[in-house]
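INFO  loader      accepted 1 record
INFO  loader      residues=114
INFO  predictor   begin
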Amino acid sequence: MIFVWPIFFTSLLLFNFIPAPFDLPSGSLAALLCLFCWIASSVLATLLGFQLAWKVVLVVQLISWTAQFIGHGLFEALQIFFGYEPYPGFHVRVTSMVDVETEEWRNKNARLLP
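INFO  predictor   done
INFO  writer      dumping tokens
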């Protein structure tokens, strides 16, 4: 617990500066899901005990992170091979924004160097 609270505290600190994209119904649903997960994990931890619970956590974390990396890799492959775009013109818009930022960065660095 002592190592977790700074992560939680600093996350909440940042969330004060980020506007919440949720309306009241979806925010309430998210809060209920968090509450359910907290209660369910407490019950499961009590049933399993520490000796088995940490093994379950380790396996679930390894499987979840592996699946996430594989999923992202497959999604990016879809973008490359099939030209997938979230909406028409997305790639062109993002590429132009990146080009502008890159040019500004190069100009800024060119002025700094003699």
